[in-house]
Amino acid sequence: MYPDSNDKLVHLSTALRKAGAPRVLVVMGVAGCGKSTVAELIGNEAHWPVVEGDALHPKANIDKMSAGIPLNDEDRQPWLEKIALVAQNWIKDKECGIVTCSALKRKYRDIIAQGSNRVCFLYLKGTKEDIAPRLQSRTGHFMPASMLDSQFATLEEPADDEVMMELDVRADQQSIAKSALRALRLLTSDQDHPLHRACASPTATVKLPL
Ligand SMILES: Nc1ncnc2c1ncn2[C@@H]1O[C@H](COP(=O)(O)OP(=O)(O)OP(=O)(O)O)[C@@H](O)[C@H]1O
Ligand SMILES: O=C(O)[C@H](O)[C@@H](O)[C@H](O)[C@H](O)CO
């Protein structure tokens, strides 16, 4: 059993527990679930670089989403390939890094991971009711809140045989990031692993969702 089983915010897949500590984190989930926020917090704490996946979209995709039209597989293909390149370059160079990407379908995640079990998806799991208010109150972003239905319709939640960790979006962002990093660190006792660069306090408290 996963050693930190008291932490209700995280759930590790069997594939992740088998694979051990990853080198690349893909923070995934529907629009507005908190990918950029959580990726930045983990990146700051672990001293890993963060790439914002939205910055890799072709302009046509941004225009389409801004107009309230959901992307299709064909639209997403070149974008996913760029994200895959970012992830695979880190692995090839024996580096670590974090990239944000909605990665809504399993076949998208397969494109990114390219069969590597060093790539771990951090899935920010929440319901429409949890996430809609965040999108509605967010300003200055191209993604209209009206797109949330299509995001959920497209979403294929990652399964237990994928290298992934589920995180509960109902918690505050600091707790989510802290829980994720602590769980990842427990996957390796090798203190030279880049996950241990900035060690979190083992007694850090975790705020549970209401
Ligand atoms: N755990 C959280 N609790 C409350 N609010 C949060 C949490 N995480 C993020 N937020 C807020 O929700 C909004 C959406 O977060 P963020 O932009 O990080 O999501 P995202 O998944 O990156 O969105 P997108 O896919 O549209 O780029 C922001 O205003 C952010 O401050
Ligand atoms: O796959 C998709 O439909 C898109 O990538 C979106 O999810 C956005 O990139 C992003 O989340 C912006 O809000």
Automatic annotation (TrEMBL):
InterPro entries xrefs: P-loop_NTPase, Shikimate/glucono_kinase, Therm_gnt_kin
One function term, GO molecular function aspect: gluconokinase activity
Pathway involvement of the protein, from the record: Carbohydrate acid metabolism
CDD domains: GntK
A Gene Ontology biological process term: D-gluconate metabolic process
Catalytic activity as recorded in UniProt: D-gluconate + ATP = 6-phospho-D-gluconate + ADP + H(+)
Manganese listed as a keyword: no
EC number: 2.7.1.12
GO cellular component, as recorded: cytoplasm
Record keywords: ATP-binding, Gluconate utilization, Kinase, Nucleotide-binding, Transferase
A Pfam family recorded for this sequence: SKI
Segments crossing the lipid bilayer: none
Family indicated by similarity: Belongs to the gluconokinase GntK/GntV family.
Name of the protein this chain belongs to: Gluconokinase
